[in-house]
Amino acid sequence: MKRRGFFKTAAIAGVMMAAGIVGQAARAADTIKVGILHSLSGTMAISETTLKDTALMAIEEINAKGGVLGKKLEPVVVDPASNWPLFAEKARQLISQDKVAVVFGCWTSVSRKSVLPVFKELNSLLFYPVQYEGEELEKNVFYTGAAPNQQAIPAVEYLMGTEGGGAKRFVLLGTDYVYPRTTNKILRAFLHSKGIKDADIDEVYTPFGHSDYQTIVANIKKFSQGGKTAVISTINGDSNVPFYKELGNAGLKATDVPVVAFSVGEEELRGVDTKPLVGHLAAWNYFESVKAPENDAFIKKWKAYSLNKKLPNADKAVTNDPMEATYVGIYMWKAAVEKAKSTDTDKVIAAMAGQTFKAPSGFTLTMDKTNHHLHKPVYIGEIKADGQFNIVWKTKGPIRAQPWSPFIAGNESKQNM
Amino acid sequence: MCAWRAPLMLVVLCLAPLQAWSALDAGVIKLLGSETTEDRISAIGQLAVSPDPLAAAVLRGLGEDSIYRLEDGRLLIVNSDYAADAATGARVTPVPETKDQLIVNNRLRKVLESAQAGGKLVSPDRSVRLGAAGDLQTSAGPAQLLLLRDARGKETDTVIRGILDLAIASASLRSDSMQDRLSAVQFLGEHGGAPAKTMLNALALAPAGGGGTEAEVRLRTAAQGAIAAIDRRLARTELVGTALQGLSLASVLLLAALGLAITFGLMGIINMAHGELLMIGAYATYVVQSLFRQYLPGAFDWYVIAAIPVAFASSALVGMALERTVIHRLYGRPLETLLCTWGISLILMQTVRTIFGAQNVEVANPSWMSGGVTVMEGLVLPYNRICIVIFSLLVVALVWLLLNRTRLGLFVRGVTQNRWMADCVGVPTSRIDTLTFGLGSGIAGLGGVALSQIGNVGPDLGQSYIVDSFMVVVLGGVGQLAGTVIAALGLGELNKFLEPYAGAVLAKIAILVFIILFIQKRPQGLFALKGRSAEASS
Predict the structure, then answer these.
(1) What's the CATH code of the domain at A236?
(2) Does pTM surpass 0.95?
């Protein structure tokens, strides 16, 4: 009892201190602070660094046009260094100390899962810009990336069709954490529903930062002797570079064993010689090669911004799907704040429902009224020799996300918020 | 739609010669420009048998993504310096602005490859012929038999002849004659590899078309027998493959650990910044690469050679500076050394991050290190791995010579075995310490060059190798170069033989457990120093 008493006092003291800080912050607030939570170092830096820069570019653009509600946006950038517990710590720091109104951030699902409790506890707002495994729907999060039915499932359907080569066997290859494991669980259930047996599915995982893919590539070769095989890669971060290098050197061609990746875009391919990789695939909701006036403008802005800020390799700057999703997210948040006339979390959440934005992907994207996910188009692209993608398949228009995959039992009752 | 386009078309039409000396059938061009893949496949089929050189140019253009469709349905071949009408071969200037690239997906590319393979089989370039023969091995049908036999007759290279024989047999599998099919199955059973197995699988399961029921059964049993024979050969190949992969991993481990074998093994310094010395070597490679790209693009392929001394020197200099300023003051205090060098590793990482950015930098393989050599049917050894194995052997030999055949090596051994006695006979121990540490660091730099060719180069590169390096040195026995070599080899092979069964994650765990148990049993490692000096230092 005594101990509980102590905690109570401590809690009251904490609340009073917090209240004091809020008071100070309120007096000083002629800007709206916006948190940016992306790894700028470590294994995920290859993917996340550009998202930070995209967010800064969008913020600069918004400020140049007068900001939001007459106030300038002030970005607060932190580096959680690909360290998952550090994500939670940094998120708490952004919300409690820096008093940001919203956070744009995270790439890996494990980092998102790590910050979720913080956002729920402090009732703040996270915009998550990357495709992910679904099986989650949080009031405090808006998912501007794809759910499995907007990326993984169409990609596998394509591979099984005539155009994709009519694959009969599948290697599910991923980095060992929640996103690949859950995606592969959904894909396995999906493949079962299409009559593919367990013997024709090979599930392989590697640790983060794995760099020796000799055995795995040799095993893929061996597995492909049993029939037309496709590889579904959910490898994340810089492991993709050694994987694709090994694939190219081992002479495994896309016409024989196509590899479709869900976390490899134009940015990740910058570090790889793409000539041996021609024809391998990626599924996204946006490619730099999408032909649309909005996309041309987006690419032009990004190239100019990279050169202007002297980002590394600015002369070869490329755009990719999570960058587009970050960009869309920031503009949707701005529109929602303007509609709600406040940055209050609950009011913004209510105002987000049904927001639309003319996105670089060439479509007007809509935030679903209930499930916090965007309606997005799906593109499947084949890698070209110059590191860009040839779009070989696309949906007619944006499709609605199903965060709770219908292929996993027990999800039928969980469609909406 | 656009007013300017009509006059432009007029200009284009005027420029086209009135009498085209070679022209492709308009129907073929229309099929090729169609939206459906089936139409395009049939167009490619027609182009492949056309004797017109323009047809070959169109096929080549398709493979290079350089065929474009105009709004009026005409197709253009667009190269960097000119554009030509695909139907007539006439030059088109200026190149119209609005045009769609004709996208070739994997399915079309496969058809395209086999359509072009016929022409490539007679190419004077050996590698082109080899690639074409490989393509035909899986895709050839009875229609191409004549062409294959012809090419087989003219071929002089034994490797390509072997592949062509397999391709002929594969093509005969779909022949109408029962006897042809049966002999093809037997031939594939004796000589075929993985691609042949894929085709025989289909034959063994499904009823083979044509012929009577009895013949089918005979064929199917023959196919099953052939598959079993191929499986036996593949199992052998796999064993050799795994052993070679283990060797390659071992060479990487060895290069990463060799520097540490000197600084930790011989000198007894727990150097937590060893990984960062590897990283500095890798970044030195990157810098040399950038310099070559900028100033000597013609000699770009040889930048790796130039990077070797640069990486050695930069890592050695950093190492010597560290030794002079910090480590040298901490001899005999292992705990403080550990903490200090760990701090140094953080400083080095952050410095590199500040100079080069937190993101990985791209280090490209030179062209002679890309690709691989086929050692056995179905077993490709990548050139970069082969180079690293050779490189690691060279470095080991060099270090061994340096330690055992030079005056410096004599001093190093003297100082590590009995510092006071060496001091008494006039060896400048402090300078030898600096040089030895520099040598160990420089060799770490060489390891960095090798690592840059297979993995990522980023500020965290060292972190992923430091544990492995310590593992190798401790397992091998502190103070022993031979132990380090054997331990690297053992760990590499063990890892690769475990990985197919346990997966990459479990294999790593199993190795760590094995090392813990081994060190329990034999704390001194595989090879231990014997004699007084070892007892004195422990």
Answers:
(1) 3.40.50.2300
(2) no
